[in-house]
Amino acid sequence: MELDPANPYSLRLPRPNYLPHNVDADEPVVKKFIKPLYRPSDMENAAYLNKIKHFAHEYGITKPKGSKVSFHYNAEMEKYHFGEHHPMKPWRLTLTKSLVSAYGMNFAMDNYTSRAATYEELTSFHTDDYIDHLATVAPQPQPLDVENNNPDLRFNLGGSDCPLFEGLYNYCSMSAGASFDAARKICSNQSDIAIAWGGGLHHAKKAEASGFCYINDIVIAILQLLRIHARVLYIDIDVHHGDGVEEAFFSTDRVMTVSFHKYDPQYFFPGTGALEDNGPKSEHNPGAHHAINVPLNDGITDEQYSKLFESVISKVIEKFRPGAIALQCGADSLAGDRLGRFNLLVEGHASCVEFCKKLNIPLVIFGGGGYTPRNVARAWAYETAVAIGQHKNIPTQIPIHTVWRDRFKNESLLPTIHQILGEPRQNRNTQKRLTEIVQHVTEQLRFVNAAPSVQMSVIPPDLGPIRDEVEQRMKEETEERDELGRKLREEGMGDRMELS
Ligand SMILES: [Zn+2]
Fold first, then answer.
1. Does residue 401 carry a catalytic annotation?
2. Is 211 labeled as ligand-binding?
3. Which of 161, 193, 198, 418 has the least CB density, counted as fewest CB within 10 Å?
4. What are the boundaries of each domain within the chain?
5. How confident is the model at residue 220 (pLDDT cuts 50, 70, 90)?
């Protein structure tokens, strides 16, 4: 297949992007609990609360000083499922919550039960006809492409990748609602780090579902951040290319997207995200050079990955100077993932979160891919610990009182590569290639204006109202500054230099 250089998105693999359906159905839980889940009594809940209180007290898990972390979660999301054999298991959220709560981390955060996103919020990015369809389409008990190799899928809905399961619209709007709320907390300065593990669905397009993603909650959240922040940096550490987010902000210089992913244009979804794809080719388009892609091969290790992440992101920060960061933490880049191909351990994956946290820039953290639920839960729980600054403090042995503890297979929060894989995957990333990547990124960034002022002359039409709002704010800021200057001059106080 040839890639059309004018449209890097022309190459979308039309068929399911994951392994055939007969691979291990790893977590049989969905089937097992078709009957209503056992509900703990008030007494049992009170006893559990006591245990985690003690635990939090013993390990000093309290709200971090000098930074506010918020946790945005809607437990209703756990009830849905994409179909027994579909790799995406909302059950991974149940396991994540179980670990986060067992470690007493909720005592260190502001916890919000997020609401579902409204129609208006969803259509801040998606088209009305797509959302209307999503809201009204009937569920399909069986994906439409199971017996038909060439089904007519409206908006790419109804196939094995993006099946029409019961309650789909509710599920999607809850995922988007949590991410939206997280972004709002950042905008209102009520949080420094806002976590939404139920979001991160980076493949969804404006009017098309893709790669298990129906609603692009990240784009919706970034649109919120752009109301307040002149520039937002999007970082994506999912094993797949963050194509939906890249495409949404293709033509603006207010969002820079950086995606680290396995790249294989023929055999690995979505087939986009080559090193040379850096946004629009025309220098007149403000989005030119504002998409950074880091294509990787199978088997990359913690050491290589975190080094590469730090070199790329520190260069990007230096040049782009974002006001906020949106970090997608897809956990399918971990070793042992059902779809992923890397050798990353929780520590390596989390080092990216640690690095972003140290930058002291408002940060929204999203979930994303991740198809071996126990590994996903480990990573996202540990990354929550990073956010609250407790990752070095908590015991690595999973607490005894953890609900579903037996599902983790290994008692450690940080299992070794041998415990996970036996033999690590062959590493196909040479040092030479990684050096070339950093050189290419450095070269791209030379074309990016250093911290462009918000002149926002050309941005996608959808951002119109937001642009007006930010422009108005910038105008007011300038006026305020001028006003202050005038007052100081009037009072004969000169500028700040003379004052000090
Ligand atoms: Zn993924």
1. no
2. yes
3. 418
4. 29-458, 460-500
5. very high
